[in-house]
Amino acid sequence: MATSLRDNLTSAYLDAAHRMGPKKARRRIVAYVESYDDVAFWRTLLSEFEDDEHYFQVMLPSATSLAKGKKMVLMNTLNTAELGHSLIACVDSDYDFLLQGATGMSRKINSNPYIFQTYGYAIESYLCYADSLHEVCVQATLNDRHVVDFHAFLTRYSQIIYPLFLWNVWFYRRHDMHTFPMYDFNACTRLQDVNIRHPYHSLDAVQRSVEDKLHELHRRFPDSVEKVRKLGETLRPLGLEPDTTYLYIQGHHLMDGVVMKLLTPICTLLRREREQEIKRLAEHSEQFHNELTGYENSQTNVSLMLRKNSGYKQLYLYQWVRNDIQKFLDSERL
């Protein structure tokens, strides 16, 4: 009875969605996403595939409440005949991609051709893509000076946390969320205050924390050490390597506990440099104050710029999702 009601509600929701727009020959495909923050990302991606035959409408999964999230998306898609024809689900992978069917949720997400996932942990993985972070700083501060090599920094960070991350995934694949839970991993791998003069000192502290935890795990679970190492080998085809680990850790932890810890002092430095330049070049106090006011009004909050970042399109994870969408559309034409 509950399934029938949910099917009816989903069908009614889709019918309403079809009536919202003007009458066109193009087929509307509704894409359910988890939250408000996900709308922009999936809109950016799916818009690349719109043509004379079809277009997408990105929306939250419930027509009857404000309920959001991954479970709500899957509940409102998996049990309806609309899935695949005029409805798709777009979700964060979390650990489900790396779990490779070890849980029921993971099996559903990895096997259903109409469920599209981020492959990296979440959309934040894309927003924090190392090769796009300099542009984020430029947009926030209007200062194009390179302060830190973001690619090198996050590569080194990934190399440090990689062996500990494997242990975290190992326990989750064994349905053990208590021995070494994600919040413990995050506590071990969070950056402390970053000194821009010596940014890699913050990685030294992370390395000490990681080594301490690894020593504890090796002592408590000596029979699992080799199994965890072999797990790393099986995960390499999924893109998880020592250099790319940051893309697979929890999204909010990556953004708030790592990347923003780095971006905030960098942008503070870049703003001060620009202000000092204005002071040095101003011919009189009035020009200085006018120029400084104009500069201050042109700046943007770095956290906001990071959330609006779209410089991830060369990231291999993004290309994987694009390929999935293309396969889906190609199959619909057959």
Structure description:
By secondary structure, the protein is mostly helical. It contains 15 helices and 4 strands. It has a 4-stranded parallel β-sheet with strand order 2-1-3-4, with helices on both faces. α7 (133-141) packs across α12 and α8 runs parallel beside α10. The longest helix is centred in the C-terminal third of the chain and has 31 residues, at 251-281. It starts with a helix and ends with a helix.
List keywords for this structure.
single chain; 334 residues; mainly alpha; 15 helices
Identify low-pLDDT runs: none
Distance between the first and last residues' Cα: 35 Å
Q: Note the main sheet.
A: 4 strands, parallel
Number of helices: 15
Overall pLDDT level: 89
Q: What is the element string, with H for helices and E for strands?
A: HEHEHEHHEHHHHHHHHHH
Number of strands: 4
Content-based structural category: mainly alpha
Give the CA-based shape. flat
Helix share, percent: 55-70%
Radius of gyration: 23 Å
Strand content: 5-15%
Query: Order of strands across the widest beta sheet?
Result: 2-1-3-4
Task: Summarize this entry quickly.
By secondary structure, the chain is mainly α. It is 58% helix and 6% strand. It has 15 helices and four strands.
